[in-house]
Amino acid sequence: MELDGEPGEDVGGRRPLATGPRQMALLDFDRHSAEDARRSGYVLVTLWHGELLLLVRVRGRDCWELPGGRLEPGETARQAAARELREETGEFVPEEKLRFLGYATTSLGPERRVLVGAVFGAEVAGAPGRFTANDEISEVRWWDGVEALPRLQTVDTHLAALTRENRPR
């Protein structure tokens, strides 16, 4: 998979690792911290099927990105990752099978709000699950890293490439 989203202009004094649609920027990826549920404002999941990465097309943003989202009250980041993956894609990966990969620091939109999110990864060996379109996600795709997709969130694909060497096998 190619690394998309070349570093862009400074954001809050930091040079982003990648930039993408909707003025999003990946400011940092910390793969050395221990998992800490209190540190996460959101979660992302890199789910692999062989060499293919699972992406979702979010209706409200009309953008291809990694499955994930916000934590619900009382939920750990790991629980949120498993739930968001199931809700958004139909893929079921037990919490204990999700591997914590690190924390992504992102800047969102023109207001430059900065959030820290936990990134988890897993590998599915069997046939991918069934997806049913819903109010949030219009479609899913197992992406080969080469196919051109309209409005690809290059921040997410860059993050997936950074975590690839640590992905579960």
TrEMBL record:
Keyword Hydrolase in record: yes
Domain Nudix hydrolase: start-end pairs: 37-165
Annotated keywords: Hydrolase
Pfam families cross-referenced by the UniProt entry: NUDIX
Xref: InterPro entries: Nudix_hydrolase, NUDIX_hydrolase-like_dom_sf, NUDIX_hydrolase_CS, NUDIX_hydrolase_dom
GO molecular-function terms, A-Z: hydrolase activity
SUPFAM superfamilies (alphabetical): Nudix
PROSITE patterns: NUDIX, NUDIX_BOX
Protein family per UniProt: Belongs to the Nudix hydrolase family.
Protein's name according to its UniProt entry: NUDIX domain-containing protein
